[in-house]
Write a structure and sequence with these properties.
This protein is of the alpha+beta class. The chain is built from 1 helix and 6 strands; from the N terminus they run ββαββββ. The protein has a 6-stranded mixed β-sheet with strand order 1-2-3-4-5-6, with helices on one face. β5 and β6 (110-116) form a beta hairpin.
Length: 120
């Protein structure tokens, strides 16, 4: 199967998004998943944000490039229309830390950044 073809792989509450420039392995996604909660919780504390319960989040991911390096783009949300989650990046223009995006470097095995939505 061509990795640029649209397909969905679910790993727990993580859904792969179609597109992207490379296909992360299940191990890449597992490592990103294991490190996400502690990283996001620390960044939320530093930003003065209170996260919703972690088990309310769902995650979308895909392999893409950022500044010439392979990363896993992670899009997280605690509410979204269910019909969009397998085909499109779920976006909201407010909602605070219920919505965030992060970038995982699978070579260095670190998160490079996270950005939380603002508040309306």
């Amino acid at each position: 199967m061509d990795y640029l073809t649209s397909f969905v792989i679910a790993i727990g509450s993580w859904l792969t998004l179609p597109g992207g420039s490379w296909r992360p392995s299940a191990q890449d996604v597992a490592e990103a998943s294991a490190q996400l909660e502690p990283y996001v919780a620390r960044q939320a504390r530093l930003a003065g944000e209170a996260l919703p319960s972690w088990n309310t989040y769902r995650f979308q991911y895909r392999g893409q490039e950022l500044n010439g390096r392979k990363v896993i783009f992670v899009n997280a949300f605690c509410s979204a229309p269910s019909d969009l989650v397998v085909t499109e990046v779920v976006e909201a223009y407010d909602g605070g830390p219920c919505y965030f995006r992060a970038y995982w470097d699978p070579i260095e095995k670190i998160y490079l950044s996270v950005s939380f939505n603002g508040h309306a």
